[in-house]
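Re-run with default settings, no changes from the original entry. Doing this only to confirm the output is reproducible before filing.
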Amino acid sequence: MKVDDLVDLAARNLRESSLRNSLTTLGIGVGVASLVAMLSLGIGLQRLADRRLARSGLFDTIVVTSGRSLRGFGRAENRDQTPPAESRPLDEQARLEMARLPNVLEAVPDLRFASQILYEGKPHLTMVAGVPPSARDKDAFQSMQGKFFSSDTADEAILQIQFADELLGIRPALGESSSLLNGQTQTLVGKELTLRYPERFAAGASDRLPVSSNPQSPLGEHSGAAFSVVEREKKLRIVGVTDQDPEGLRGVSRARMFVPLQMAENLHVMLPSGLRDGEPDFSNTPAYPSLSVRVRSPNQVDSVQEAIRKMGFNTFSILDATRGLRRFFAVLDLFLGIFGSFALAVAALGIVNTLVMAILERRREIGIMKAIGASDGDVKKLFLAEAAVMGLVGGALGVGLGWAIGRVINLGTNFYLRRQNLPPENLWAVPWWLVGGAIGFAIVISMISGLYPAARAAKLDPVQALRYE
């Protein structure tokens, strides 16, 4: 039987029982819609997580620490690894070498220190961190009140909203972490505060000390190198307040006030890591506690990590931690697909029922076809073609219905987020491969469902079929 004749016969047969075939096709559409809606939700959630982590700079960032850091002493040591006491310090020279590695955009030192802040005569303790100019593109600094730093050496500060509440004397209600950005927090922008910090002086730099500074006695000495620590004060102007946490993964050590990185380096603050990690060099260019190396793409993270390890440093990337997250989303998509396929399985039973009923109604027609020369294979092809057409139409209908369901869910979610003063999000995604895969899956399931009715129709005896009334 020619393909044209096969298509014409299948279309005619489907039109004759239009109501029953339409309901069967609608069942396929509902099954495909549930499958598409669930998978698009899983894909959307995964893309949302990827976007958030990518825009936070975590996916393309490598944290580098020295082998002599005390933070690594509790780990199992590799016999081939250099002993911690002999490890290379993470100093400015090492930072410049990493910045020159292929595919590296920048190597930023992690400068953070506990400090006392004076605002309107009242002292406040908080953690201060230096922020590079590239942080301007982070979400936390894009949706804040005020503006980003005017330069990398400006005497300016950006406050996290929890610290802003503290400066304003606002105590959040029980169960609330902080207030929202409002007119009160806006009043802080443009105000001045005083930063008190411990400045470090290396041996031989005592001529820089003013007579009134009253330096403390040297806290340590190594191979003739000594250092002194003097309390300093610096006036800073508040230029912004953010209600997001740029360093949410740092736990208790995260900063609540941010200053330009170069300005923080110029302060020569005595960092706790200088004593904690046993660094022998207390010059005006001390070793850093850690570095954040940003690469061009997450695809180059592994190669850059390997190059840094060969330099003798420890590395960590959020990609190491997110492999479990990616496995979670893969399992989530699998389970959503399985549950979404249940409705399609019910629709497959509808196809079987429809085609079996068609055999009973068309026994005489099948007998005539076989009597005039149609083979068993031609009869099978006819029924499989009818099942495939129902799968094609139902799959296309289901994709459109699933897309509409996703749009409604997304609109409803964004309406709720707006009422909670939160930015809108796109929680679903229907990529082209899902559209094609859903329609193809519907066709395959429909044809599999039509195998039994087709085989049953092909086995009909033409003599008995012609006698059937």
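The first helix runs from residue 3 to 16. DSSP finds 15 helices and twelve strands in the chain.
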